[in-house]
Amino acid sequence: MGSNIFGGKRDAWLLVLVMLVAVLVFALITSEFRLNNFAITLVSGLFQGMLLFLVASGLSLVFGLMDILNFAQGAYFMVGAYLAYDLQHATGVFNITEAVPDPNIRFIVGVIVAILVGAFLGWVLERWLLRPLYDRPLFQLVLTFGVSIIMLEGIRNIWNTTPYSWTEVFGIREAQFTLFGQDFSMYRLFVIGVGVLLIIGIALLLRRTRLGIVVRAGVEDPEMVSALGINVRVVFTLVFTLGCAVAAFGGAIAAPFLGATISLGATFLIQSIAVIVLGGLGSYEGTAVGSIIVGLALATMQQFSIQVSIPVLATITPMLLLVLVLMVRPQGLFGEAR
Amino acid sequence: MAETTHTTPNKSARTASAQRLGFVAGLRENWLYWLILVILVLFPFIIGWLSGDSPFGAPRGDRMVMRGESVYAQSILINIFALAVLVMSYNLMFGFTGVISFGHALFFGLGGYLMGIILEFGGMDPNLGLLVSLVVVLAVTGVLGFIVGLVSLRLRGIYFAIFTLAIAEMGWLFFRGLEITNGEDGLNIASMPEWIDPARNRILVYYVGLALFVLTFVLIRRLVNSPVGSVFQAIRENEERAQVLGYNTLRYKLFSITVAGMLAGLAGMLLAIMNKEARPEILNVSVTVDALLMTIIGGVGTFTGPVIGASGLHLLDTFLREAVITIGPLTIDIGERWTLILGFIFVLVVLIFPYGVVGTWKRLQMRFRRNK
Prior knowledge:
The structure holds two protein chains of two kinds. Chain A is mainly α. Chain A has 13 helices and two strands. Residues 1-6 of chain A have low confidence and may be disordered. In chain B, 45% of the residues are buried. Classes of the chains: A mainly alpha, B mainly alpha.
């Protein structure tokens, strides 16, 4: 199947460039060449892209290495969101306002606890439930789905299902920044910044550390890696734990802005699956680039769909983009052509 | 996917020879299926006799009101028939041909929506409308299955699965936003032919559903035991090998996906007739996930597995949803915890029945025979 015109990695970047330019030009047109409108689209697109990346990165790492489509990833996102919110506020289940009076510190505590709990739950899922099933991949799918239901129901029972509204953290929600004469909440910038840092951080982890080398080798050929004397199972557990921790972290970061609602995880999960396939399964850069493209396209189409008042146009965008990319490049943007 | 080999060639050869031996031998081979069929045909009357309620509903004035145990039981079984046809069609594609699709809900939902739109806005005589719907649903789901199948020429494995997911999600979002079908509220189908109106003649809907269920079961069994079915299974085990043997595997996959899509469309029609509405939920990815889970839990690549998966989970769903268990001072309202219990069921079934209910049962049987 190597006769594809978009075969190599150079062509993948070229395609990415074409898509980005197309999206940005379309965004300019829909904003009627007014820079402040364009800025809204740009910031909102990057923001949504980063939120997608927070769920998709873990999904992508886990799928690339172990071929597991973790249906519970959205639930880990929700656990993070609810925990972080709860710890920051006095009205929740766990009240730590006496021990930690400063709400900003409480937010940091919430994020850290979210990461730890997400990592722990991820470890439990991989070590005790998924590990016996590595020779039966379909059943892993059912299992992660079952675990997802249990976790979401757990959340529903611990916290009530009313959507929590968003809150002040470090004053950055109220604070504004200006781009092209348009004011934005600093929180968007904060989430974009965290997303970029995470992209760089995981990239460094994969490129510069021994674990990263083992993981990348494992994506290529897990049997070869274990033949070299490396305990792949431990690496699987580590990566899965990391993936779930990142998802919970994402939830914790997004919660103050999006508010914690029970259905949030499912929405993000489906779109994240679209992102990792669009980027090319097993490719980390594909996931990062895919998140940004999908986020930008989504924001542009949201703008456009309001103008032409066809709301469906915005919601189908991630899926439409995925279908178009797969038509041109069946292995996704950065996937290995087989 | 070696673990899904349950229909060994030996078994299908046995069935084929039974078919050649004639009716009596076939009866002996399949006695359990015939017994279940007889029970299902008599079911409304058995329940009616046991409960004392008429299977035709209770008369009020000059018409019947759909009330009583038998009528209620019929409605549960009609839902199971629709669900079982959906899951069997999914299993034909997934369990026997090895094609994993996450977009099966699209065919199911289109069946309901197309019929609803034709009946409501077609302006035809309802009976004619139903006939037109049948033709249109079969044509559209068939052509769509064919097109989606053509894409599988280029996309492999999980890429194909997610591609179908994307197509189906777009369908769901489209109908959820479509104004003439009332968007998220769904389309009420009022102009139903009287003879198949579940509010008047529930029992006829029951027999139509039973007929669809039985025909699907027989069709899939015949198909899988035919030479074409052997190629399906060869593709599932190793597509490249089937290609090397000279089979045009794309053609067979196309056939499998198209037939599965059409059957799912019919299942969607049946459900829409029963509910007298088409809601966007029938297009949601959760329908596909349900079909996938029921197939896996029942037994991938078996004939009875999907039926057991579909009916088992639906029955649990129906009865546990309303159940309240009291153990001493402790009262548990299962309905409130049902989704949680469902999650545990998935996890437990995966750990206890490693090959699905039917698959594990067959393996135990084989081991028992070998030890004897």
